[in-house]
Amino acid sequence: MQLETMSNDPLHGLTLEMIVTHLVESYGWDELGQQIRINCFTSNPSIQSSLKFLRKTPWARTKVEDFYKYSLRKNKLK
């Protein structure tokens, strides 16, 4: 019998699109742009343009993922 192991990673099973959408629903573009200083959140923001940038830019994706984990810990997500 094989035991299934649970992942301790809060991002396990989440896509980048799910993370960005959840952050936008919880904070809105203005607040998200203030919390994470990335132009894709402040200059004509959209989910698709943000995803395109974040997928090509590892440091920005890390910032978004870290902010998502922080928001989970502080119960700031809707």
From TrEMBL:
UniProt keyword list: DNA-binding
Listed name of the protein: DNA-binding protein VF530
Keyword DNA-binding: yes
Domain of life the protein comes from: Bacteria
GO molecular function: DNA binding
